[in-house]
Amino acid sequence: MSTNKRKILVCGGTGCISSDSEGIIKNLELELKNNGQEENAQVVKVGCFGFCGQGPIVKVEPDNVFYVRVSPDDAKDIVEQHIIGGDYVERILFVDPLSNQRIHDYKDMSFYAKQHRVALRNCGEIDPENIEDYIANKGYEALKKCLTEYSRDEVINIIKESGLRGRGGGGFPTGLKWEITKKSRDGEQKYVICNADEGDPGAFMDRSILEGDAHSVIEAMAIGAYAMGAQNGVVYIRAEYPLAIHRLMIAMQQAKEKGFLGKNIFGTDFNFDIEIRYGAGAFVCGEETALIHSVEGHRGEPTVKPPFPSESGLKGQPTCVNNVETLANVPAIILNGSKWFSDIGTEKSKGTKVFALAGKINNIGLVEVPMGTTLREIVYDIGGGILGGHKFKAVQTGGPSGGVITEADLDTPIDYESLKSIGSMMGSGGMIVLDETDCMVNIAKFYLEFTQDESCGKCTPCRVGTKRMYEILDRITKGQGKPEDIDNLLELGEMIKSSALCGLGQTAPNPVLSTIKYFRDEYEDHINKHYCKTGKCKDLVKYTIDPEKCIGCTACARVCPVGCIAGEVKKVHVIDQEKCIKCGACFDACKFNAVVKP
Ligand SMILES: Cc1cc2nc3c(=O)[nH]c(=O)nc-3n(C[C@H](O)[C@H](O)[C@H](O)COP(=O)(O)O)c2cc1C
Ligand code: SF4
Ligand code: SF4
Ligand code: SF4
Ligand code: FES
């Protein structure tokens, strides 16, 4: 192990802070001081490492040692054993779920081996609250290069040639969007907007980037503003992201003090400033026209496109809306060149994509992989396989707008087109892994409940249609489905997709349509046999006691929260079905397998 001055990087992302990573920092600093080690090691609070499921994370550099599930009490051993003694603190090293081995070198962690961090390049590497750290990592060099070496068209061409496409869900070519906005009423007031609304349930890519590397987003907005001829920028961020907002504010203040925001940036005649606007957490406000209305102080309702924001956006002026992750790629593309970026990925989808990997998977967290990586690689190589040794069932990509991908398509290389062709979509990057214990009708119902709740109500197909679809699904999960329900869902779904005003309604039926496509038998079981094979639909579960097996031990009666199990000691017990709330406690309590469910 190296004995040069070490850096002890401690995760300061929301996930790890909620597990007291700040207590770890405090104790590490105290231990270094008490042991006279302040000259030998420095504690740095960094952004999210991505491996949030194993947090709080501490990484020691240059040794490349990655400690997981660290507590403030571990600070003493990290300093005494590792910093002073040059030895690993074995008990907090990551244990590989497949080999069951403790991993000593970060590079050997399968979670990271296939990742390629471009948008997340500085997360977990730099102190996001210290602009000097960003500058030391070539921060603001791309902006300087653009302002002093490239014309506006040259910047746009670099982004176009890189093949970067919007990471907010639509996949629209970013350079082309910049070009259209530049050409639209050139010379007039224009705006660049960073979309940090991030409303997909379970997604936190954009939050992590802003918490861990807000400067890269600020720098990218300035580059885009220069190229398009804008002088004002807005970051639209949900108010539920207080840490991201805090770090963004610090970064903006520091950028202003350094002259990277404000007037005559890098001694040129380019002026650019950014303001922050807060969203109240409505999913629809992530849609760009709704977002613009919300920024203007109106109701966050979408409007018909065209006109697109690039023609008529904020205050009626040409406006470019870009997603956080899209922007985070921009400085790296400018510095490394368009070819460097376009060499990563597939023919039509260049670069990398960040996914929030969650659900029934061993390694939960943020992963950034080259486009073209297969789902199998993400689920098994990076994700470490299915939790608890269960059987893989499907992956839901694209959140409430996407669909399920089954075993048969696990080897599909992920890009915008391939996901669409198998009935799902990239979306903003939510990826929920489902196993054999998940009921697909219930999953579809969950997403539809979300979208019908979030529907702004402006157009009838979405407002009424999603409600009707939800009601049908609700009935099916309660054992009241009708034979015609599947056809009705398919018909309604297609109708809503083709007639809803905005992307929310146009994609809302996707989870239902794709689960019917791949798991129709589960729908049929619920409707025709009143049977949910996973037992997730509680109304379809009926607990009974097998008189052949019951020995009258009374354990079930003692745990039943509503007292609906009758029976004397050593006599067969009976459940009162009228009173049973289907909690399953008796099932778990019976050691004789006498409580049965279908
Ligand atoms: C219902 C709905 C919600 C959306 N939410 C977001 C969001 O949270 N973040 C985002 O960047 N884009 C979101 N979008 C896409 C935006 O409308 C827009 O296409 C995107 O911000 C453009 O940036 P990009 O080209 O960099 O992807 C949403 C779209 C719809 C229809
Ligand atoms: S599709 Fe839904 S969210 Fe979009 S405008 Fe219509 S009602 Fe509103
Ligand atoms: S716990 Fe099982 S064996 Fe005991 S009384 Fe209940 S059903 Fe019968
Ligand atoms: S499922 Fe719950 S409520 Fe029903 S009998 Fe068993 S313990 Fe009682
Ligand atoms: S929040 Fe700490 S690793 Fe993600």
Automatic annotation (TrEMBL):
Q: Which domain of life is it from?
A: Bacteria
Give any GO molecular function from the UniProt entry. Answer: FMN binding
Is this entry keyworded rRNA-binding? no
The catalytic activity of this protein is classed by the Enzyme Commission as: 1.6.5.11
- Enzyme class (EC, first level): oxidoreductase
- What's one Pfam family here? Fer4_10
Domain 4Fe-4S ferredoxin-type, chain residue ranges per copy = 541-570, 571-598
Which keywords does this Swiss-Prot/TrEMBL entry list? 4Fe-4S, Iron, Iron-sulfur, Metal-binding, Oxidoreductase
Task: Tell me which family the UniProt entry assigns to this protein.
Answer: Belongs to the complex I 51 kDa subunit family.
Q: What is this protein called?
A: NADH-quinone oxidoreductase subunit F 2
